[in-house]
Amino acid sequence: MPTLHRYEDAPALREHIDAALAQYLDEVNLPRSLRDAAAYAVLAPGKRMRPILTIMATELLGGSIDDALPSACALEMVHAFSLVHDDLPALDNDELRRGRPTVHVQHGEAMAILVGDLLNTLPFRLLSDRTPDAARVGALCVELSEATCDMIAGQVYDTLGGFPQSLTDEERLRLTHRLKTGALIRCACRMGARAAGASADDLESITAYGEAVGLVFQIVDDVLDVTQTTEAMGKRTQKDEQADKLTYPGVLGLEASRREIRRLTQLAEDALTPYGDRADPLRELCASMAVRTH
Ligand code: IPE
Ligand code: IPE
Ligand code: MG
Ligand code: MG
Ligand code: MG
Description:
The protein has helices spanning 10-27, 32-43, 49-60, 65-86, 103-107, 109-130, 137-160, 169-195, 200-227, 230-233, 248-252, 254-271, 280-290; strands at 96-97, 100-101. The protein is mainly alpha-helical.
């Protein structure tokens, strides 16, 4: 039976993921300037929560870290693309990310747009080059493409509005969060399950877990924007209200946001019941996300 990493192994998993990402970026034939700017975006110190979810979902269902790694790296690249473009002047106009100048500040706006372009297509090539079981590549690419399209749709609602008329503020908020952040986190879990050759029942349970965790993650991000300092987060805080964003604390208030985090955390835990102790790493990961401070 392959290793089942524990939640405490997250720092070692992060190193493993970063080494694989760096190696892949070095293998692709790219102009030096583009490679350097892409590495700046991808390898900056982040939590690597999505690839860790992928690895833990694969291992829960009997696969190995090597089965999971191509999906994990592909997901983290798409996530990095979403951050680079999210920070651009035309979107959130942010100058600090992961404790460093944003890509457009460091490398210029044209390069930031092009790094995003690269990191939105390279993951599909990576999946095709590296997935151990070639029969799974198609399904993995479809998962990633659908979730990336959902993320982009969520960014459109978040940045430009254009919601269906009939939705209340709370419905708009849930839709935006499900798409802009929930979709990639759900996808991290589903790709992890698929990389292990999951049954339909397992895929359903892991999807329910991923959907709940995805929403928890963005509600916590909204709460931290209000309650945390820029230094602690490594990105500018106190900006969502100023930018007129629809957020959980803004629409429901802080107390109700915290209640919603607890409700969704419970839903995520419930989805793992069939797996007993084997699901402890995913349980602890979800619990840690709910109380994270950066
Ligand atoms: C930030 O994601 C963007 C959101 C979806 C809230 P993370 O909080 O996972 O960012 P990193 O990868 O740790 O920097
Ligand atoms: C992030 O939402 C969503 C994506 C990057 C797709 P935010 O705009 O709230 O993320 P931060 O707060 O800048 O990390
Ligand atoms: Mg944004
Ligand atoms: Mg932003
Ligand atoms: Mg935010």
